[in-house]
Sequence to fold (241 residues):
Amino acid sequence: MFESAYDEIAEWYDAWAGPMIDDDPFFPTVETLMGTVAGQRVCDLACGQGRVARYLAERGASVVGIDVSAKLLAIAHGHEQATPRGIAYLQADARTLDGIPDSAFDGVLCFMALMDIPDLAPTLRTIARILRPAGWFVFATLHPCFHTPRSGELATPDGWVRTIGDYFIEGYWRSDSRTGPPGKVGAYHSTLSSYINSLSDAGLTLEQVSEPYATPALAAARPIWAEVPAVLVARCRKGAR
Fold:
């Protein structure tokens, strides 16, 4: 029996995120690091309502979308029924992915969801397990240095500044001041060193990292993201053996 906090906010989240990924201010950086996906078998891990899965399928990938939320998957299935793209959707826990065979995918993409999954280390080990040798893993997540259990922003005479507290306290957090999912269902914080070391321990080599600058629209709406990065994007590679 799967349980997901996102089941409680599925309709709100679908409306908040929007049906397509094209307008997301951080996805172009993911596109760059991911590269061409045509002809590849790709897992959209923590796929939610399938925004990224649809993007991947439209660019020629064979896509399996996996999420723990039954209600978000139902929305994804609805899109697939309305416009078939050949996407398979499965419900599974990202920490184990029971039923998914080893070396099943050329690539795994996890867009803005690692911070929603408890237990970073087993999740990364499972990602490595389902990747073929030399397979790629690309993820985007809330930047762990600037989204902590206690963080905010201040307008000062010298401009906007980000305030950070409790950086070293890992685990679940939720903030009433946040309007997005961290305010609705919370998130899980890991330090930057935990991300890097857990990737290495899982056998995933960090190849490239990006901290995307805010788009003009985002900078106008949230000036702080023109001062510090909101999101961390990375490309990793599983060993060839």
Remarks:
- Residues 5-143+189-238 form a domain with the Rossmann fold fold (CATH 3.40.50.150).
- The chain has a mean pLDDT of 96.
- The CA atoms of residues 154 and 231 lie 19 Å apart.
